[in-house]
Amino acid sequence: MLGDGCIKELSFHNTDLKLIKTMSTLLRMHGMKHSVNGPYPPAGLGKKPWYRIYVKSQSREKFLTLTVLAETLHAHLVQYLTSVSI
What is the reported pTM? Predict the structure, then answer.
């Protein structure tokens, strides 16, 4: 559940480029403007370079709407599956 507050920047960071590319594809499929940045240098010895996806301001509302919808559907599915006897 989302709490009260304000989102000034919506970004995701990860060291797994395959995950970043997958997320970028999903955002594009839903028509969300975003940018992929990186690789950024690792922060420490033995660490991997990292990447960032930044969701553009004109797509933030759409992103939040989709994620709340997904969260709601997931909650209903879990509730249904726990109430059904298998």
Answer: 0.67
